[in-house]
């Protein structure tokens, strides 16, 4: 995506994200999102199967994954689960999103979340790091540690990484290297990459809530489509 286009389209989104994430995000993590961290399966789009025969897709991320401000059924992980079911794929979908989550936070809780086998792991973390100016090397190490933990417990797992863009407010070099972080991780780990999770949603007022940064129910439908374009081929391969 053209860097000038990012700056023009997403400054409003980032301004809202900075306000909500840095001022209220920490409170959200310790209060409203605590139940999500403690019960990552609470937003399942499918019931746990008898006998454990159904494969599992685990979405691991921040408030975008959690569906901040919405019913869990309206968040993109649940919508992706509906798409998978409609396409004939028998998967249990688990939403392990926590509002305000950073890569460091994700690293600290990943082992606890992996309480059952995972077939597809969708990693959506890094935006809060980028908007806080956390050193990219630190973010990269945390994300790699998360991936390593997932692979150690689930050797056959397919990793899907959600790419994110941030405007050049912290410098064009930082914003450019920030996005390249996801590209590098996907190549290193032979993971699939969602080019930009918020494509056609970020910075568009009618598709975001009053805070300007969290997608509405309609916005999540578009995000779900962005994810599905990458995820469906992964599910197809697992059927072979």
TrEMBL record:
GO terms for molecular function: phosphatidylcholine lysophospholipase activity. It comes from the Bacteria. SUPFAM superfamilies: SGNH hydrolase. Residues 59-222 form the SGNH hydrolase-type esterase domain. InterPro entries: Ester_Hydrolysis_Enzymes (IPR051532), SGNH_hydro (IPR013830), SGNH_hydro_sf (IPR036514). This is Arylesterase. It comes from Larkinella knui.
